[in-house]
Amino acid sequence: MSFTGKYELQSQENFEPFMKALGLPDDQIQKGKDIKSTTEIVQNGKKFKVTVTTGSKVLTNEFTIGEECEIEMLTGEKAKALVQMEGNNKLITNVKGLKSITELNGDTITHTMMMGDLTYKRISKRV
Predict the structure, then answer these.
(1) CB atoms within 10 A of CB 60
(2) In sequence order, which ranges of the chain are alpha helices (DSSP H)?
(3) What is the pLDDT of residues 44-78, one digit of tens each?
(4) For residue 53, what pLDDT is reported?
(5) I need a surface site. Which of 27, 32, 83, 90 has the fewest CB within 10 A?
(6) Is the pLDDT of residue 104 over 80?
């Protein structure tokens, strides 16, 4: 199953408490909470390029399944990560105490991030 495509955010749960816990400033949280972000994914075999556009902020990360890479986090901080694939529709990584699971089902991507007892969930649809 190919992740390639453009996806638009449909809904999200626990945005504000999760972003606060990450250390994002309140003004950024308030600006970001109502913006419908788009995610563009290009998959070429085990190589991925993921671009998330939220208003004027663009975050791009490139990685290869099973190889260590450096990714930019939501805070702008860069960290080492290792992305694994489970089955043919789930990407999993752990970065600095944050677990991220991105699951593709048909035209819907569910991205769940967990840190401690906080869970942030984003649901996006292919456009």
Answers:
(1) 12
(2) 15-22, 26-32
(3) 999 999 999 988 889 999 999 999 999 998 888 89
(4) 92
(5) 27
(6) yes
List, in order, residues 6 or more apart from 72 with CB less than 8 Å away: 59, 60, 61, 78
**DSSP bridge pairs for 81:** 69
Which residue in this structure is represented by tokens 């819907």? 108
State how far the Cα of 33 lies from the Cα of 41, in Å rounded to an integer.
22
From residue 113, alpha-carbon distances to 44, 56, 118 in Å are 24, 23, 8
Does position 1 have pLDDT exceeding 80, yes or no?
no
Check residue 75 and give its pLDDT.
80
Give all strands (DSSP E) within 25-107, no chain letters: 38-44, 47-54, 57-64, 68-72, 78-82, 84-86, 90-95, 98-105
More confident residue, 121 or 96: 121
Instruction: Please provide the average confidence, as pLDDT, over all residues in the chain.
Output: 93
At residue 34, what is the residue type?
Answer: D
